[in-house]
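Trying the structure run again after the queue cleared.
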Amino acid sequence: MKVGILAGGLGTRLAEETEYKPKPMVEIGGMPILWHIMRYYHAHGFKDFSIALGYKADYVKRWFAEQARYAHDLTVDFATGEVHPHGSANLPDWQVHLVDTAFETATGGRIKRLAPYIGDEGTFMVTWGDGVSDVDLHKLIAFHKSHGKLATLTAVRPPARFGHLQMEGDQIVEFDEKPQIGEGWINGAFFVLEPGVFDYIEGDDIMFEREPLSNLAKDGQLMAYRHHDFWQCMDTVRDKKRLEDLWADGAPWKAWSE
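Done. C-alpha cells:
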C-alpha cells in the first residue's frame, strides 16, 4: 500500500527554523520529522512514499538525493572529478517520489496531484508531514476495510497545553499537569483513503480539511478511527521542544531499531 505525505507547508509558527527549510525538514534528534514519519510507516511494512512538495521543494529533493548518494563510502578521483560510491549503506529500502505540487497549492490540491503516484491501485494512505503518533497502522487499515467507506481519518485527543485544576472554592481537589482533552476529538491525519476521494477535490486551491472532508461526512463516506494513545504535531517551538524531549527519552513513535 502506498503512502502520501504532505510536505509543502511554510510553518510560520516555526519561523526561526523554516526561514531556510520547509517545516517537515525541521529536525528532531538530528533528523527531519519527515524522516521520523517515514521510518514509522516503514516499521509497519510500508516503503512506497510520495512526498508532496511546495515551499522550498529543492531543499527536500537535495536532502533525499544526498542521503542516497553519500550514505555509502566514497572514492573520489581528483584527476577525473568522479565520485564512486562503494560498500553497503545502512539505508531503508524506500521508493520515494518527490513531487513538486507548487508553492500555492492547498492540502487537497496536493493530495490530488499525488494521484498518479498513490491512487491507481486502490486503497492508499495519506498523512501530514509534521506529526508523529504510535497509532497501530495495521489496525487502522483493518478498521477502514471493515466499514467499506471512502475515507478514514485518525481521531485523536492531544494533550492540553496547560495543567488542569479542579477546585472546590479556593481549594484545589484535583491537579493534572498535562491532561488529555476530555471532550472533542480532532483530526490527527493518518488517513486511509480510496481513489473515489479524488472526486471530492476540485482543484489546487481546495483545503482537504474543508469541503472534501465536509462533503465526505455529509455523504456518509467519512469514518473516524479513535486513537487513545500518543499523537503530537509540531506547530510551534514549544511542540518541537516536547518532541525533542520525548526523543531523548525513547520516543513513543520509535517503532524501529537502529
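The chain has one domain: 3-248. Worth checking whether this holds up in the mutant runs.
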